[in-house]
Amino acid sequence: MITNFTQLVDKLNTAAPQTIAVVAAEDHATMGAIVRAIRTGFAKAILIGNKTRTESLLAHLELPPETFLIVHLPDEQMAMKEALSLIHQGKADILMKGLIGTDIFLKAVLDKTSGLMKQGEVMTYVAALQIPSYHKLLFISDTAVIPYPNLEQKIAMLKYAVEMARRFGISKPKVALIGASEKVGNQSQTAIDASIICKMAQRGQLGEVIVDGPLDIFLATQPESLNIKRIITPIGGEADILIFPSLESCNAFYKGLVRFAGAELAGLLQGTRKPVVLMSRSESENSKFYCLALACLMANNNNLSYE
After folding, report:
1. CATH number for the domain harbouring residue 74
2. Predicted TM-score (pTM) of this structure
3. Any residues with CB less than 8 A from the CB of 256 and at least 6 apart, and which?
4. Residue 54 region, left (φ>0) first, then alpha (ψ -120 to 50), else beta?
5. How far separated are the first and last CA of the chain, in Å rounded?
6. What's the domain range around 140?
7. How far out from the chain centre does Cα 293 lie?
8. What's the pLDDT tens digit per position in 118-155?
9. Model confidence at 279, in pLDDT bands (50, 70, 90)?
10. Are 105 and 138 contained in the same domain?
11. Are residues 93 and 227 in the same domain?
12. Does 168 lie in the same domain as 85?
């Protein structure tokens, strides 16, 4: 089982390198992350955007331009169109956002004709958090896409998070449905949805997974809290996955951990045919590097051993 990002990068040494199509790559943190991924050996890249600026950044990073295929398309929409074309042709395995505007990027990904969405799927965002005070990686959703997920969307979030956790070697993930209170008798939508999802899990409708909720953060991740509150839960304070009731709560949770607890995050859009790396331009090079590692893990079709 992969329990931290160092192990994730090490695991990719046994996998085939994946090709990343980067839209508007002329950003220092983005380029730095790509260069690290290439030097580590788990990725290759096609850089689409302003060739002059891209080559200038490469010179600063002391990597020869011939290391990459650089496609000169300074126009954001044209660059996005080319990146999607490369994905559809099988010439690239992963799509990554650089300095392109998020609205243009997502509109293209969602396009019914040329985009990357699977028919009938829900777009959401799943991230892995490496927290110094937690003994394993913690998967969370949704940090970036769905403001107030309904029942159907929460089920999709759970399924995507479970799929990602299994790629890390977690055969039967423990999923906590997060709420402000663990009381199931209240009439909040969070509690109602959690009760329905838990019943689905008990009946085997969600596969090999352990689900409970609503639970607060302490009950989900801190075993000693169970004795204090006298709560019995199959999660046992050892959650692998946290599903939040809103984007704001999930986003604030991860940013607080990054800012004040030294956490690192790697995340991907879910529901797409190929991995899509979408990060804020303010994210660090380190986070972008780990996002690339995560994307390469998810894109690689080889069966990786977790012994």
Report:
1. 3.40.718.10
2. 0.94
3. none
4. alpha
5. 8
6. 121-270
7. 11
8. 889 999 999 999 999 999 999 999 999 999 999 999 99
9. confident
10. no
11. no
12. no
Find out whether 1 and 170 touch, Cβ atoms under 8 Å.
yes
Answer whether residue 212 is part of any domain. yes
47 and 113 in a single domain? The answer is yes
Q: Which candidate, 107, 137, 141, places its Cα nearest to that of 125?
A: 141
In the chain, the number of structural domains is 2
The one-letter amino acid at 131? I
pLDDT in tens, 232-278: 999 999 999 999 999 999 999 999 999 999 999 999 999 999 999 99
Are 34 and 20 in contact by the 8 Å Cβ rule? The answer is: yes
Looking at residue 245, its pLDDT comes to 97
- Pairing of β 138-141 and β 124-130: antiparallel
φ/ψ of 102, rounded to 5, equals -60, -35
Residues 2 and 31 in one domain: yes
96 & 169 share domain: no
